[in-house]
């Protein structure tokens, strides 16, 4: 070993030794990178599950999802099938682990330690290099994910949430740099001499212990990481996409809370804590303000039945439901803040899960948007947006933000997940659905045909049913809806002349006199249109 330092080039054996050292250093660098990444991932999981701080993996996912088109997004959902969220997220996690491991090599190249080293203690230069690496990672994350940093799953208001996320990034990436620096020193080949006071043997033993220590930390972090991963999966929003179905072919005017359809962007939904959660009213209002949950509930409030429909609801599907929502109207709220300023053109809603929606202020006020804290008489369930959500009659579900934390009046449109992807954001299309009959019937006697129709606050003027695939139409009877913002029930008594196979079709005309379009289109990206058809056999 001494020879390396004396005549490095001349000696073939020393070249071989150098090669061996190079390999050992590379292995040490990869090992240190892996252990540092595992610890970082464990910290991420911990902060995510216990402090509601989003992981860099999720921040990355949110950033990327906004860059996709609606088409690509839906294709991705289909490709990953049942694992539509966990699949891509775990891919990103593995990617991060690999990147963090390989980054160990970069670190080793930067510090270029002369092997074998004399001490297990990193020098100042190494600490500085590791710190620089951490700093670059933190800065990159903050810059790339700036718009996503505002989320916090315990419900922190936006500015605090952003601060907490940045603190989390600092902690995670500093831990990475620290462990990388230390573990690399412990893993690389050491030079043992008698001079340092202890025997060569005890020095060897010490390094062995240190290496074992690094391995134990890596293993411990790996096990903890797996456990946190399992906990993550347990809290996973497997209810995403739950549809509401009629019972015995009858839809109830009000959908019970536990049957209401659910759609969420989140792998794990927020669980806002009322001690930290606030509603902020900001931007172009007379005076801004902040409410606790209790203060909010002191505002003059009202109840209204409102139907929600997801833009992904195709003809005949169940991604729509109706509830009686209770809360304060946007109009009343703004009146408490000296009204909107003249320059306010849009209202922008922000939620604790980072979801943002902005809509033309005028339209939202005319639709009499409601900020609701109750659903069918009980506090909002978590998955429906506890403690506060917005209802915008006339707009698809995606523009009805849950887990609201800020109402901001602005002079321009502000994007969000679905608008960035290019999903339609306008008045929802008129729809109608046949709920019964959906199955074969005995021939003989009249048959009740019925279902729902919906056109947001435009209301429904007329519903027609055809039993001959749309050749002739019969006008149905309408039941007055629970409010101008709900679905309308229709029915028509059919007197079939003979047994056989029939194709029933339904179409509605909205309150403005415009007939539902027969043009068939899928849900992506403009919302499905076309008539709902049901094939029935009369035996
Ligand atoms: N904050 C937030 N609001 C959200 C969503 C979300 O993921 N996050 N999903 C939207 C979508 S796409 C729909 S269809 C409705 C669904 O509301 P529900 O689950 O209460 O039926 O919420 C909307 N509001
Ligand atoms: Mo939706």
TrEMBL record:
GO terms for biological process: sulfur compound metabolic process. InterPro entries: Ig_E-set, MoCF_OxRdtse_dimer, OxRdtase_Mopterin-bd_dom, OxRdtase_Mopterin-bd_sf. Residues 444-524 form the Moybdenum cofactor oxidoreductase dimerisation domain. The chain crosses the membrane at residues 21-47, 91-115, 127-146, 166-187, 208-228. One of its GO terms (molecular function) is sulfite oxidase activity. Keywords: Membrane, Transmembrane, Transmembrane helix. Residues 271-412 form the Oxidoreductase molybdopterin-binding domain. PANTHER family: SULFITE OXIDASE, MITOCHONDRIAL, SULFITE REDUCTASE. This is Molybdopterin-binding oxidoreductase.
